[in-house]
Design brief:
It contains 19 helices and 31 strands. The protein is an alpha/beta fold and about 650 residues long. The structure holds adenosine-5'-monophosphate-propyl ester (PRX).
Length: about 650
C-alpha cells in the first residue's frame, strides 16, 4: 500500500509518493500568489474554466461588494458537463440506502442527456433566466440533475435540506418567491421511508408555487394531479438538447439559506464565474484529483459542502463523485467503509461529528487490510479535536493518508484555510494556511492584528476570494451589518482563531450560531420556534459541548401559563421539529421563572452557559434581575454537562 505521508520533526508531511502525484508540491506558491492575488486568480480562472467571452476586469471592489471577472461570459453547466463528454467516464455513483437496491452509475453523457431534458422541462413550465427554483430533494441523482438543469438555463436554485420541516421550507420558498418546487415522495433513512410529499403539501400553501415536480423515489409510477407533475414522465417527454444560456460572471448561480444570529435564515448569494473558479481549484488542489480519482464527500446537498464538493467541484474537474442516500450506520456501522471498498473511493471528505460517532462504535467494523484505495482524507464543518483526528488518520487512513482539515463557510463558497496535500504539514486541530491567493488574519475587538499565538477574530482581507458570496438575497442591510460593520474593510467571519508559526487554528463561532453535528443553526431560530407556542412567554437557547455532535442546544423557557412537565417539554420539542426540523431539537428544556437580563432587556445567554458548564457566572452586576441566577442554578441542578 502506498504511503502518502511521512513524519519529520514530530509533524506529518507529504511523502515522496505524494509529491510525485501532487498538483502543488512547493510552498512557494503562497508567496507567488500573495504578490498579486488578482493576477493569480485571473490565471487560474483562464486555465480552469471555459469562458464564452473573456472578462474585461479581473477584480473590482466597492465595499461591501466586489466582483470577479466582470464582463466575462460563461455557462456553468457547460463547465460541469459539456466539456467532459468526450471522456466517456462515470460522473456520478449513487449508492441507495437499501442494501438490496443496486448502485447507480451515470456517465457524463447520461447525465448530460438527463440534464438537458430536465432543463427543457423547466423551460416549458415557464422558468426563465434569473427565476428562483426551490429544490427539496434528498441525496439522489435527481438532485444533481435538477441543480445542473437550473444552471443550464440560468435559473437560480435554492436548495432546502430535506430533513428540514415544512415550515422551514415554506419560509425559504417565500423569501426567494419560487414558483417551481422540485421534490420527491420520500427517501430512505435507517431502513424506513421518510415521507416528503406531506411536508411539501404543507409548505406550498400560501406561497406562489405554481408547479411541483415530484421524483418517485419510494413508490414508482405514482399518479400526480393538479399542480403536481411527475419528474420521470416530464423528462421522458422532453427534447434532448437545451441550448445553454450565456451568463455573466456576476449573475447569481444559486442562493443557499443559512442561519445567522436572528430568527430569520439568510439567503446567501453565490455568483457564477467566481464561484466556479474557486470550486474548481480548491477541489483539484485540496484533494489532488487526477483523472481516475473518485471523490466521496458525505455532505448532503442541503448544505454548502454538498453543493461545492459532493456535486459541483468534482464535476468541474471532470472527476467521478459518489453520493450515498442514507444513514452512515445502516444496516450497520460498517456501511461507509464497505462503500469505500466497493467503489474504490480515493478521496473521502466528511465531518468531525461523523468521525466521533464511528469512534464510539469501535474498530470492529473496520476490517483489516481494507480501505486501500484511499489517498486523501478531509474534514469540514467544525473544529476537529486531536483524538478524532488521530482516530481518522490511523483507522481510516491506515496512517498513510494526509488528513486535510478545511475551514470555510456557506458564505465563502469554497474552502479557504487548509493544508495542501503536496505541501503539508498535517497537524491535528490546525486548519493550516490561507488558500493561495487569499488572506486571513486574526484581529482584536478594534480590528488590530493580534500577536502570533493570541486569540482573536478571524477576518479575510482584500482582495476577497472569488468564491465569496455576493450579498444576502434582498437584504442589503443585513449583509452590511453582519459581515462588514465590526471591522473596517475586512470580512468578518464570526469565528475565533489564533495563528501560530503562520498556521491558523480556528476555535469556533463567536456569535450566537451553533454547530450541531456540523449543522449550522441559530439560537434565535430555535427561540422563535419555542416562542411561537401560546404558552411560552419567552425563551433562551444556548449550546453546550457534546462528545459526538460537538454542540447540542439547551433551552430555557419562561411559561405564560401552564406548569412545567415532561409532557410540556415533549410538546415544545415538537414545536422545534415543526418549525425547523429534528436536527435542531433541544436535548433538554428547563422551565424557569425568569431569564437573566440586562437593564436594556437583553437576555444574557452567556450566564446561562456558565451555569450549564458549572462555571461561576460572570457579569452579574449588569443584570436587572441577578436573583434569578440562583433559581436557574437550582433548576439546572447537577449533571447536565455530563451527558
Ligand atoms: O465555525 C466555522 C465552522 O463552520 C462554520 C461555517 O458553517 P457553514 O456555513 O455551515 O459551513 C460549513 C461547511 C463549510 C464556520 O464559521 N467550521 C467550518 N469548517 C471548520 C470550522 N471550524 C473549525 N474548523 C473547520 N475546519
Amino acid at each position: 500500500m502506498t504511503t502518502y505521508i511521512t513524519k519529520k520533526s514530530g509533524k506529518y508531511w507529504p511523502s515522496k509518493e505524494m509529491k510525485k502525484i501532487a498538483w502543488v508540491k512547493d510552498d512557494k506558491i503562497y508567496k507567488k500568489a500573495e504578490k498579486n492575488p488578482v493576477k493569480f486568480w485571473g490565471e487560474l480562472a483562464k486555465e480552469g474554466i471555459t469562458w464564452e467571452k473573456p472578462w474585461e476586469k479581473t477584480y473590482e471592489e466597492k465595499l461591501p461588494y466586489f466582483t470577479w471577472f466582470k464582463g466575462g461570459k460563461l455557462n456553468f453547466c457547460v463547465n460541469a458537463l459539456d466539456r467532459h463528454l468526450d471522456k466517456n467516464k462515470t460522473a456520478l455513483i449513487w449508492v441507495p440506502e437499501p442494501v438490496k437496491e443496486k448502485t447507480v452509475k451515470l456517465t457524463y453523457g447520461e447525465l448530460y442527456d438527463k440534464v438537458n431534458k430536465f432543463a427543457n422541462v423547466l423551460k416549458k413550465l415557464g422558468v426563465k433566466k434569473g427565476d428562483v427554483v426551490a429544490i427539496y430533494l434528498p441525496l439522489i441523482p435527481e438532485a444533481l440533475i435538477s441543480i445542473l438543469a437550473c444552471t443550464r438555463i440560468g435559473a437560480i436554485h435554492s436548495v432546502v435540506f430535506s430533513a428540514f420541516s415544512a415550515g422551514a421550507l415554506k419560509t425559504r420558498i417565500k423569501d426567494g418567491k419560487a414558483k417551481i418546487l422540485i421534490s420527491a415522495d420520500g427517501y430512505y433513512r435507517r431502513g424506513k421511508p421518510e415521507n416528503l410529499k406531506k411536508k411539501v403539501g404543507e409548505a406550498v400553501k400560501g406561497t406562489k408555487v405554481k408547479n411541483i415536480i415530484m421524483v418517485d423515489r419510494i413508490q414508482k409510477n405514482k399518479k400526480y394531479r393538479g399542480k403536481y407533475l411527475s419528474f420521470e414522465k416530464e423528462i421522458d417527454k422532453a427534447d434532448s438538447y437545451c441550448k445553454p444560456e450565456l451568463m455573466n460572471s456576476e449573475d447569481i448561480l444559486f442562493i443557499l439559506y443559512t442561519s445567522g444570529t436572528t430568527g430569520k435564515p439568510k439567503g446567501v448569494i453565490h455568483d457564477t464565474g467566481g464561484y466556479a473558479t474557486q470550486a474548481y481549484w480548491t477541489t483539484k488542489w485540496n484533494f489532488n484529483l487526477r483523472e481516475d480519482d473518485i471523490l466521496w464527500c458525505t455532505a448532503d446537498i442541503g448544505w454548502i459542502t454538498g453543493h461545492t464538493y459532493a456535486f459541483y467541484g468534482p464535476l468541474l474537474t471532470g472527476n467521478t463523485t459518489l453520493i450515498y442516500e442514507g444513514s452512515p450506520d445502516f444496516p450497520n456501522p460498517g456501511r461507509w467503509w464497505d462503500i469505500i471498498d466497493e467503489n474504490k473511493v480515493t478521496v473521502f471528505y466528511t465531518a468531525p461529528t461523523a468521525i466521533r460517532m464511528f469512534m464510539k462504535f469501535g474498530d470492529k467494523y473496520i476490517k483489516k487490510n481494507k480501505l486501500k484505495s484511499l489517498k486523501i482524507l478531509g474534514t469540514v464543518g467544525e473544529p476537529i479535536d486531536e483524538d478524532a483526528w488521530e482516530w481518522y488518520f490511523k483507522k481510516i487512513g491506515n496512517s498513510r493518508c494526509p488528513v486535510i482539515d478545511t475551514w470555510w463557510q456557506t458564505e465563502t463558497g469554497g474552502t479557504l484555510i487548509n493544508a495542501l496535500p503536496g505541501v503539508g504539514p498535517f497537524v491535528p486541530t490546525v486548519a493550516g494556511k490561507s488558500f493561495p491567493g487569499t488572506r486571513h488574519i486574526v484581529v482584536d475587538k478594534k480590528g488590530k492584528k493580534v500577536k502570533s499565538g493570541k486569540n482573536g477574530f478571524l477576518v479575510q482581507l482584500s482582495p476577497f476570494a472569488p468564491g465569496m458570496f455576493h450579498g444576502i438575497y434582498k437584504n442589503h442591510k443585513r449583509y452590511v451589518k453582519t459581515y462588514w460593520k465590526r471591522f473596517k474593510d475586512k470580512y468578518d467571519t464570526s469565528d475565533g482563531a489564533f495563528i501560530k508559526e503562520g498556521f491558523i487554528r480556528v476555535t469556533g463561532r463567536t456569535d450566537d450560531v451553533m454547530k450541531v453535528a456540523g449543522h449550522r443553526l441559530s439560537t434565535a431560530e430555535l427561540e422563535n420556534a419555542l416562542n411561537e407556542d401560546k404558552i411560552v412567554n419567552e425563551s433562551a437557547v444556548v449550546p453546550i459541548p457534546d462528545k459526538i455532535k460537538g454542540e447540542v442546544p439547551i433551552a430555557f423557557v419562561v411559561l405564560k401559563k401552564g406548569t412545567a412537565s415532561e409532557v410540556l417539554e415533549k410538546k415544545l420539542k415538537k414545536d422545534v421539529d415543526k418549525a425547523i426540523g429534528p436536527t435542531a431539537r433541544p436535548v433538554k428544556i428547563y422551565f424557569v421563572d425568569e431569564l437573566p437580563k440586562t437593564r436594556s432587556g437583553k437576555i444574557m445567554r452567556r450566564i446561562l452557559k456558565n451555569i450549564l458548564n458549572k462555571e461561576e457566572p460572570q457579569g452579574l452586576a449588569t443584570l436587572v434581575n441577578p436573583k434569578c441566577v440562583e433559581e436557574i442554578k437550582g433548576v439546572v441542578g447537577e449533571g447536565i454537562v455530563k451527558k
